[in-house]
Fold:
Amino acid sequence: MIFLFNTTNNILTGGDDGDLQTSLIPNHAILMTLQMPTITIERIGQGWRATPPSTVTEAEMLTVAGNWQALKMTPFDGDIPQQMPKIAIAWLAGENSGRVFQLYQDGEHMLVLHQQQLFQIRDTSISSLLIETY
Structure:
């Protein structure tokens, strides 16, 4: 009886988006370097270093790196916004090239173009993934 109820509910509500969610970077991957528009952060042992040197704290760098590891995105069928994206390149341990991400703010949500596929991250802003210094 419970199985029938759950199956009917999934059909009526369109299922669970959790099945479609994917991580920005693979769960097992280790983020080594993150190139952002105005700054690059690099893993140094257990800590982080900013290039060029700035007033950004190690705690801020750790938070941004943690967000890249933790945030989930879902496929998005809409159009790419007509605005300039913020570009980030994530370099992972054991990979020869960086992964390029184009980030767009779309109201309360963020859109991510990665490998020619558009994704959405709900209820977050670009500032959770980028450090901007001016």
